[in-house]
Write a structure and sequence with these properties.
The chain contains 3 helices and 6 strands; from the N terminus they run βααββββαβ. The chain has 116 residues and is an alpha+beta fold. It has a single domain, classed as Dimeric alpha+beta barrel (Alpha-Beta Plaits), CATH 3.30.70.1060.
Amino acid sequence: MLFMLIVKASKNSEAGHLPSPELMEAMTKYNEELVNAGVRVMSKGLHPSSKGIRISFPNPGEEPMVTEGPFTETQELIAGFILIEVKSKQEAIDWAMRMPDPQGFGEGQIELRQVF
């Protein structure tokens, strides 16, 4: 089963601040554990939404609309993701529970979604 651990953005990540050295070390260790267990497929961080572009389709059949970032609702933004291949939903939850707070300072939030 393929799952995506979606790391939600925070004010800190949207400001373009990199994680502390301690958090970078903890995330590196976590990623190494995923690799050593043979479950990590891919892991990437994303630039802040100020460097992003949104394409929306407000009216069916009409031209899409292009909007350049930043986008203000950080609760709806993604700062990064990890794609894992596991045997069950519970195993995906177990791996997600082992992830360090991805934003630090109690701001981290992870959404876990199964991939079709």
